[in-house]
Specification:
Blueprint (H helix, E strand, L loop, with lengths): L13 E5 L7 E3 L4 E6 L5 H24 L5 H20 L2 H4 L3 E5 L5 E9 L2 E8 L1 H23 L4 H22 L5 E5 L3 H4 L2 H9 L23 H18 L1 H13 L1 H14 L1 E4 L8 E4 L6 E3 L5 H19 L3 E6 L7 H18 L2 E5 L3 H16 L6 H7 L11 E7 L2 E4 L15 H18 L1
Parallel strand pairs: 3-12, 3-13, 7-11, 11-12
Antiparallel strand pairs: 1-2, 1-4, 4-5, 5-6, 8-9, 9-10, 13-14
Helix pairs in contact: 1-2, 1-5, 4-5, 8-11, 9-10, 10-11, 10-12, 11-12, 12-13
Length: 459
Amino acid sequence: MTHASTEMMTNMHVMKIERFGPLKETTIIPSSVMYLTGAQASGKSVLAKLFYYFRMFKDEYMELLLNSSNVEWGKFGGNFKGEMRSKFIEMFGEARDIGSFRILYYYTSEDFAEVRSYEKENTYRFSVDFSMPLYSKLRAIFGKKRELTKNSELEGNTLNAVKRNETAYRKNIINELRKAFDDDAFIMLMPSGRGALALMPVMQAILTCDVKRTDFFKTRQPFTSQPNVIDAPTRNFLIEVKRMREKLLSNQFKEELREALEKASEVRLIAQLSESILNGWFVPDSNGYDDCIEVKGNRNAKVLMTHASSGQQEAVWLLNMMLVYAVEKRKCLLVIEEPETHLHPEAQYNLVKAICAFCNCTGSQVIITTHSTYVLSTYNNMALAGDCAKKPERIEELQRIIPRECWMDPDEFSAYAMKEGQLINIKRDEQVLADISELDAIAFVRDEEFRKLADLLWN
């Protein structure tokens, strides 16, 4: 167990970072929609993945609990900490390569997880730990599994008894874990390069092969701590792509989609924007190798995903997942790395609108890393529309400019630029809009260069 000051903490998630990678000391409270920008290797992806990592704890605990044969808390608790330590190594590397750091993630004012490094035998190692209140809650949840085992034994361990107890137990545990971590969202990270990753030949190779990575700079031998090249969030994304394909092919979902398109304006808008971005409809194939885009305006023209444009490949599974989750009314945390990748500015504009409609439909939270002024300025417009909606007399006029489904609460929107290890708020508390000049600073240099070149040419 670990202890930390709860001064100034509230009943919302808070992350405190001390010297991790490119990040120096910072405290950040995630909003419903949070944008992170900055130069390459400035730390925005690290920060986004840290949020994903700490939000994984709930699901990883559940997974381990349902599949573990341990009956003693000491062994199980140690295994859980070891599992989360392995996930950390997958995502961020070995402590010896990172150096001294400490990260605290508060789920509530008293419930937090801590990952920190410490020096031992002239190298750095790190540990995963929990506050005493959270530790006690996790131990109590584990105790309920032992009760399940005893109840099954008392009922003669019949198949029906086991199934009945497991169903009740799973439902109860899900609720208890949601309370313990103050989190009822499904989490998903949309990695950069998702277009190539999700193509069936590549995906099959990744998920079925035991690919090794080499500690090139030291021993030139495979890492023993974690042999897989692909980290946990990327594997989870690919597994979800497989589930999505099965879902899209099912007759039950097709009927659910049809009903949602009739009744839910947000779902209709997401579908319309998806068609515009993809220039057609995604048509899944049962084995995945013949997934294709049915070209808009020509149902007989189909393009295999392996032959589709890079922009279509990057956007398709983000759009598919948002559509399915919207139909399911599934509340999510989506961490989206660079949604603008390979997309035309108009498609970027439409994608942001689709994300806004998705958030409004499901009550989801999104964390977005971006280099695009189009992405951030489009969200500025959606937040400004949300601010305009406070004037009831202008609602009708407002709807003609921006669809109601895309209006966003400006108070639930934050934007930060990463610079020299610091987190710079580019949306002041009293402002509705984010300052996109941080993203477009090079434009001033470019324009000045052009002016000087023009003077040389024409003067």
